[in-house]
Recover the amino acids of this structure.
């Protein structure tokens, strides 16, 4: 039993929801109303400390639902992280370096979530309580303007439920359908959100017609995603082909939008402009110049570069970006190729076990979600404690879980139904 040592599930769920949904969703609105203290860095750190402490205590006091192989993988990851942390401590030279070390170390602890979410009962309770409390907040955020094009960072659990929309009760089906339409409406200003919605719709269709899908076909699709992703990354790094600039040139000037700047003025932004090439060039050139390709620059430092580097230097004294908008290059900067490959191996093990060591087609279909985010991690999925990363690591935990992988499709269907709260704000669903 997960609660055999009195696992503080209510505190865990409350802290994780507050951190990854509430603060992410309405943080900007809070700042506008003068309530910025509610979204301060230090409040986030306190919540992360609570969550990490609970996760570590769970690991040391409960029966883990994953194989010994993955436990060894976790130990390897934490060894690399500990070495990076010690190296980072040794190079602290001012307040900003120390703050960067703390923040980046917290971000590198995100994979811990998969350990708890590998438990069927814990995942189910989290989704149920999250839906109960996050749904009213989502409706509130629509009013105060905190959701909009960044809904996927705060309310990604809806995308998970959307996988199974065809078997949900009618009210939930309508509600989730409206949320998907709402999120998709911001595709022009936030392409990543649109891609995630499209991926959820494709997975939902695959799940509905899973009886007609051959397992070898799913395996081929997943391997194609992995091979194509690695090929595109290699081609980009070697300077042979740049998919980012290629796509941007084809759609240059096609989509523009009016944006409101922090000073209150308005301007026009080309949504199709290529920003990722500049990030990758800065990350790679910085690693070569400063010789940290294999083991990284430590979590205390970022990559050199002119992309916002001058503005950052005015504050921190260093022309470095601690964190970029892309997942895997950030891991590379902090922990080098060594850390990045171990991090990627979490994704690889999850998709491989889901495809080759699970009873249900449901888990095999979820492997497609892992593969999709392996691809997206080279373009988006910033490393931070938000609901997007909760969903990614919850799904990884499900795919790594001995308990989930032994379930049948009917078992999974019953589990999803049990995840739905009976009432929200007194309304029966």
């Amino acid at each position: 039993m997960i609660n055999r040592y009195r696992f503080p599930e209510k505190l865990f769920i409350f802290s994780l929801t507050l951190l990854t949904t509430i603060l992410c969703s309405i943080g900007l609105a809070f700042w506008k109303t003068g309530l910025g203290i509610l979204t301060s860095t230090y409040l986030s750190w306190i919540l992360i400390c609570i969550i990490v402490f609970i996760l570590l205590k769970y690991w040391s006091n409960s029966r883990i639902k994953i194989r010994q192989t993955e436990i060894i993988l976790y130990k390897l990851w934490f060894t690399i992280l500990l070495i990076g942390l010690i190296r980072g401590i040794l190079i602290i030279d001012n307040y900003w370096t120390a703050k960067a070390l703390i923040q980046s170390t917290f971000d590198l602890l995100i994979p811990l979530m998969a350990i708890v979410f590998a438990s069927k009962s814990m995942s189910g309770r989290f989704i149920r309580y999250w839906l109960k409390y996050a749904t009213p907040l989502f409706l509130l955020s629509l009013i105060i303007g905190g959701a909009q094009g960044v809904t996927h960072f705060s309310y990604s659990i809806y995308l998970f439920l959307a996988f199974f929309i065809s078997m949900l009760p009618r009210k939930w089906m309508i509600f989730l359908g409206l949320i998907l339409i709402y999120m998709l409406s911001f595709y022009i200003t936030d392409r990543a959100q649109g891609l995630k919605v499209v991926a959820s719709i494709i997975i939902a269709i695959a799940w509905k017609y899973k009886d007609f899908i051959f397992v070898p076909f799913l395996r081929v699709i997943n391997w194609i995603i992995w091979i194509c992703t690695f090929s595109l990354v290699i081609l980009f790094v070697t300077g042979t082909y740049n998919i980012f600039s290629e796509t941007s040139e084809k759609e240059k000037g096609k989509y523009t939008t009016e944006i409101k700047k922090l000073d209150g003025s308005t301007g026009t932004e080309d949504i199709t402009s290529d920003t990722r090439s500049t990030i990758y060039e800065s990350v790679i050139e910085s690693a070569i110049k400063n010789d940290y390709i294999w083991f990284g620059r430590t979590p205390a430092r970022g990559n050199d570069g002119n992309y916002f580097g001058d503005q950052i230097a005015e504050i921190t004294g260093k022309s470095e970006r601690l964190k970029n908008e892309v997942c895997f290059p950030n891991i590379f900067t902090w922990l080098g190729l060594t850390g990045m490959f171990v991090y990627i191996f979490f994704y690889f093990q999850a998709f491989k076990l889901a495809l080759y060591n699970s009873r249900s087609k449901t888990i095999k279909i979820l492997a497609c979600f892992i593969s999709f985010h392996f691809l997206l991690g080279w373009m988006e999925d910033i490393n931070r404690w938000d609901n997007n990363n909760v969903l990614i690591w919850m799904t990884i935990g499900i795919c790594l879980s001995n308990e989930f992988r032994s379930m049948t499709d009917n078992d999974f269907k019953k589990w999803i139904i049990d995840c739905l709260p009976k009432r929200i704000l007194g309304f029966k669903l």
Q: What stands out?
A: Residues 17 and 130 are 7 Å apart (CA to CA). Confidence is low (pLDDT under 50) at residues 32-36.
